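HOLO CASE FILE
Compound: protoporphyrin IX containing FE
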Amino acid sequence: MPAPSPSSPPPDLLAARVRDPYPYFAWLRRHAPVRAERRDGRPTVWQISRHEDVLALLTDERLSKDPGRVPGYVAGPAGLNRHLVHSDPPDHTRLRTLVNTAFAPRRIAQLEPFITDTAHLLLDRVEGHAHVDVIGDFAAPLTFRMICAILGVPGELDNARTRDTLMATIAPAPGVDQARVDDALHALLDRLVATKRTGGEQSGVDLLGALVRAGDESGAMSEEELRSTAYLLLLVGHDTTMNLIGNGTLALLRNPAEAARLAAPGLVTTAVEELLRYDSPVRDATFRCAAESITLHGQVIDEGDIVSLLIGSANRDGLRFPEPDRLDLGRTPNDHLAFGYGPHFCIGAALARLEGAVAFPLLLRRLGSVALAKPTEELPWRPARVMRGLAALPVVRN
Ligand code: HEM
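Model generated. Tokens follow.
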């Protein structure tokens, strides 16, 4: 007779969840593929960990993206929740159409020379330095510059201070008051929107300028939707891709034989997909709640419960990927869910893929022979629930 499944995950797996979630995810997939976390006075959260189930639920219309359905649930900074990630049709369809074209693959492809030049410039600055932080010196400024260019953010706001203001909204530094974080964010958005209304910098794609005009001239978007969308795009437009570059570089440093394969032309496309799968930047799909009751593997998810679709776990599911814990830059097929699936599929996928395709080979070539400056157990993972990313990735030149 098989041993009965343990009902709770071993404490050591739980304790290591931020640093290394994969043993915990493997436990979930095996013993509790639909697992409830019940907490007093707070909505129940169901963790879904198998690829097949995550994929099915990403397109299941019984799940809603509207946090307003869960009483008392706080989804993000006050007054900034009316954007496409937190909406269902018809609002979702309207908001998505307004931003979609700016991220169309054909338009994004034109950015390649700009991405390459910016990447070189950032690496020039650390040329000859013994110590480099792949996140702070490279991934953060590169990815933020790109989303600023698309949105039309004025140059004087494209800096580390703006990035810190945005990042603090999902992972405030210890001891920092949430109200102050929100105030700084609102002040930033006031300034941005005012720049667009007064006809400031309007070069390039200038998506934000286009959204302001769409709202003002035809009422296609309310003021709250405009500010929410600007916040969303500024945040997810760089945090995610920064994590792709950080997590991906870490994976390459820990798998030198695979990193060596990247020197071969033609492998970069499958390599980026595999790095997205192997240590997925978005570990958990964003907010969803049951709009009606759903039964899955004998468990009943009640209306109003929150459903957490563990992308990072789905992407390591051995039922979908042979040898799921092995990094294989030539892996095909690779049906990872790193960008989600269905109606909320990532709008920035083409941009993120291009940034990855430019960044990885260039970084490996220009950094030369480098090693991690710290043991992997000591790397500073940011404690955010949805994202998986490093606060810093220090490397030292050999
Ligand atoms: C490697 C980088 C990226 C990853 C892994 C990623 C991942 C994801 C995932 C998993 C979703 C689906 C969320 C859900 O279904 O709840 C999503 C949606 C979205 N992503 Fe990305 N993303 C990345 C880069 C970007 C970039 C560069 C942008 C640029 C603006 C962006 C904008 C968005 C938007 C606006 C949505 C919401 C789409 C909707 O709700 O219809 N993402 N992304």
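CASE NOTES: Residues 223-254 form the longest helix (32 residues). The chain is about 45% helix and 10% strand.
CLOSED: yes
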